[in-house]
């Protein structure tokens, strides 16, 4: 009788079966969760512990549009599409001012914006400067300084991102900019340098537009002026002669270098461009080394102060060493150009003396 108990007075079952529904609570092992479910649960916990930001706001959209505009500006420069290149470059400069104002006005600052905004500026400047240098509108050493400084900062940014990224350090989390790990604070001289670079590039891009506005008659007079002043302009090679522009329609479009080096260009305008180039070069040097010296230029997020200090020192060392190599390359390129120019001047003087002697003998 002890082996049977009544259940609701109408059904009998063994007493041992009464507790079958609570057997797991009495010590039986629970079944393991599938690996996929455990992975999803772990990811959910990580997301709840790691702060995320709202990336797609108006300032960041404007910033990302500058990233897209940068290669387009370079393509237009190489294709001598002067008006389109200047217009798109002006758009990039205006949005650079507008997105920062919107972010401050409506408190939309994000860590993503603090990283991508200077990245977009540097990409735009690097592509524009490289294309203008390829067209002969900017000196080679200046282009190396500008491009090299941005490249050294980009290398340091790669290190800062990896060193400051919270564990686990995976490729997906590395490119997930909603996971803040470090903040970049542009230095004061860097802001001035960016402004001066924009002014120099904008002025250089506007040169062909000024030539077109002057009209084809003024452009066609360039070969006559060059031939009448040959004795005084032997130190500089003559620009491409547009006298045959009526035969070749493609030659009617003046290039950046031909207008910058044309003897008909206002000397005051040439002096302004040369002075601005020197100023940009000096501020680029100052700005590059400021990131290797100032400790508050980059703030690494986290609680381990000793680790943050060690990571910051390594990042500044990366900037200093890489930018020093860039400066050495710029000096070497400048010396090479200077030696080549001296040889050309000597050859032109020798040819001028020989030509003058023949002319006197024949007379």
Automatic annotation (TrEMBL):
<dbReference type="Pfam" id="PF01066">
    <property type="entry name" value="CDP-OH_P_transf"/>
</dbReference>
<feature type="transmembrane region" description="Helical">
    <location>
        <begin position="195"/>
        <end position="214"/>
    </location>
</feature>
<dbReference type="InterPro" id="IPR048254">
    <property type="entry name" value="CDP_ALCOHOL_P_TRANSF_CS"/>
</dbReference>
<feature type="transmembrane region" description="Helical">
    <location>
        <begin position="315"/>
        <end position="335"/>
    </location>
</feature>
<keyword id="KW-0594">Phospholipid biosynthesis</keyword>
<keyword id="KW-0808">Transferase</keyword>
<keyword id="KW-0444">Lipid biosynthesis</keyword>
<dbReference type="GO" id="GO:0005739">
    <property type="term" value="C:mitochondrion"/>
</dbReference>
<dbReference type="GO" id="GO:0016020">
    <property type="term" value="C:membrane"/>
</dbReference>
<dbReference type="InterPro" id="IPR043130">
    <property type="entry name" value="CDP-OH_PTrfase_TM_dom"/>
</dbReference>
<keyword id="KW-0812">Transmembrane</keyword>
<keyword id="KW-0472">Membrane</keyword>
<keyword id="KW-1133">Transmembrane helix</keyword>
<dbReference type="GO" id="GO:0032049">
    <property type="term" value="P:cardiolipin biosynthetic process"/>
</dbReference>
<dbReference type="InterPro" id="IPR000462">
    <property type="entry name" value="CDP-OH_P_trans"/>
</dbReference>
<protein>
    <submittedName>
        <fullName>Uncharacterized protein</fullName>
    </submittedName>
</protein>
<dbReference type="InterPro" id="IPR050324">
    <property type="entry name" value="CDP-alcohol_PTase-I"/>
</dbReference>
<keyword id="KW-0443">Lipid metabolism</keyword>
<keyword id="KW-1208">Phospholipid metabolism</keyword>
<feature type="compositionally biased region" description="Low complexity">
    <location>
        <begin position="223"/>
        <end position="236"/>
    </location>
</feature>
<comment type="similarity">
    <text>Belongs to the CDP-alcohol phosphatidyltransferase class-I family.</text>
</comment>
<dbReference type="GO" id="GO:0043337">
    <property type="term" value="F:cardiolipin synthase (CMP-forming)"/>
</dbReference>
<feature type="transmembrane region" description="Helical">
    <location>
        <begin position="275"/>
        <end position="294"/>
    </location>
</feature>
<feature type="region of interest" description="Disordered">
    <location>
        <begin position="222"/>
        <end position="254"/>
    </location>
</feature>
């Amino acid at each position: 009788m002890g082996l049977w108990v009544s259940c609701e007075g109408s059904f009998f079952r063994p007493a041992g079966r009464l507790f079958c529904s609570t057997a797991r609570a009495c010590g039986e092992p629970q079944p393991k969760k599938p690996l996929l479910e455990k992975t999803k649960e772990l990811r959910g916990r990580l997301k709840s512990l790691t702060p995320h930001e709202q990336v797609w706001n108006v300032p960041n959209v404007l910033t990302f549009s500058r990233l897209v505009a940068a290669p387009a500006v370079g393509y237009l420069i190489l294709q001598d599409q002067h008006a389109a290149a200047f217009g798109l470059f002006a758009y990039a400069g205006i949005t650079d001012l507008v997105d920062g104002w919107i972010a401050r006005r409506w408190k939309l600052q994000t860590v993503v914006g603090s990283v991508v905004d200077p990245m977009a500026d540097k990409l735009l400047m690097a592509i524009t400067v490289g294309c203008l240098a390829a067209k002969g509108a900017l000196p080679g050493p200046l282009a190396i300084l500008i491009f090299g400084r941005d490249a050294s900062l980009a290398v340091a940014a790669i290190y800062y991102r990896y060193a400051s990224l919270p564990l686990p350090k995976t490729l997906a989390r590395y490119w997930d900019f909603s996971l803040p790990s470090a903040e970049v604070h542009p230095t004061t001289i860097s802001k001035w340098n960016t402004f001066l670079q924009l002014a120099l590039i904008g002025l250089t891009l506007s040169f062909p537009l000024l030539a077109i506005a002057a009209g084809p008659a003024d452009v066609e007079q360039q070969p006559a002026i060059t031939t009448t002043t040959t004795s005084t302009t032997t130190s500089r090679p003559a620009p491409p002669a547009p006298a045959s522009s009526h035969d070749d329609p493609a030659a009617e479009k003046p290039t950046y270098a031909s207008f910058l080096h044309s003897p008909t260009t206002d000397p005051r305008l040439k002096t302004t461009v040369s002075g601005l180039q020197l100023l940009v070069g000096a501020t680029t040097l100052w700005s590059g080394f400021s990131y290797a010296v100032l400790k508050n230029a980059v703030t690494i997020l986290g609680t381990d102060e000793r680790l943050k200090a060690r990571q910051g020192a390594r990042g500044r060392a990366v900037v200093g060493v890489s930018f020093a190599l860039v400066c050495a390359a710029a000096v070497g390129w400048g010396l090479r150009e200077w030696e080549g120019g001296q040889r050309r001047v000597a050859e032109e003087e020798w040819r001028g003396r020989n030509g003058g002697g023949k002319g006197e003998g024949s007379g």
